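Take one record.
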Amino acid sequence: MLRRLVLALLACALAFAAPARAADPDYSDIWWAAGGVEAGWGVNFAQGPGFIFATFFIYGPDKNQIWYSAEMVQTGTGRYSGALYRCTGSWFGADWQPADHGCTPVGEAQFVAESVVRGAFSWRVDAAQAVKTIERLSLTPISLAGTYIGGMLIKSSAQCSSGASSIPYAYQLIVTEGADSLVRIDQVTLEGETDCVMEGPAAQVGRVRPMPGGTYVCEFFGVDTTVAISDMRRTSNGGIELAWTANLGNGCTETGSFSGVPQQ
C-alpha cells in the first residue's frame, strides 16, 4: 500500500497528461442489429456531454433509403431519449439552397445501454414503431499494444480493509497482444516495478475492446482474482482508456480507470 501512496502523490504531476473520462461511457460509434442479423441498416451515435445525436440509415415503406435524425438527452445512467426528425434539403449535385432545408418532428427515439457495447434502441416514426437490440459495428482492427503513461483512479468499497476510498495514482501501462485477442496489461510504477497484471481475451466490438473475464494479479498487494474490463479503447491522440471492476473478497470491490498517452 505504501508504494501506491507514493504513486498517488506523483499522479498530480500527470493530471494534465491524461484526458478526463466522461461520467457516462462514450457511445459514439456505428451501431447495427446485434449479431449482424439485419445487415443493411443501422444508426450512428455522436455523443457529447449528456447528449447523443443519432443519424439513421434505414428504409421507408417503398424500401428506398430515408433520412432521419434524433436528438437524445441523457435521462439516467446509460439512458437517452428525445425527438426524432425527418429532414429535407437541396440535392447534393446542385447549389445548396437554405430554403430547401427543414426538419419536422415525427416521433421519438430512446437508447438504453445494456453495456458499453450493447443496448436496446427503440424509435417511432408517425404510427410505425421499432424496437431493436443493437451493438457496435466493428470496422477495421484496433490494436492496443504499446506503452502508455497517465493517471489511474482506484475506488474501494466500504467493505474493504481500508474502508471506502477514491485515490489517484501515476502509472505506466505496458499493453501486449497475443493470439485469439489475448491482451496483457502490466501496471508499472514510474520506477519500473510491476505492481499488477491484467490478462484475458478482449475481442473488439466497434471501437471498444471489453475483457469480461480476465485475471488480475497484484503480488505486492496479495491480490489474485478475476477482473471485468467493461470499456477499453484507443483514444484519438493514440493513447488508451480502460475501466474495470474486481471483487477482492469479503465484499470488497475495486473499481478503477486509467487514461494515458503514448510513452515516447
Observations:
- The chain has two domains: 2-22+140-262, 29-136.
- The CA atoms of residues 46 and 105 lie 19 Å apart.
- The longest helix spans residues 2-11.
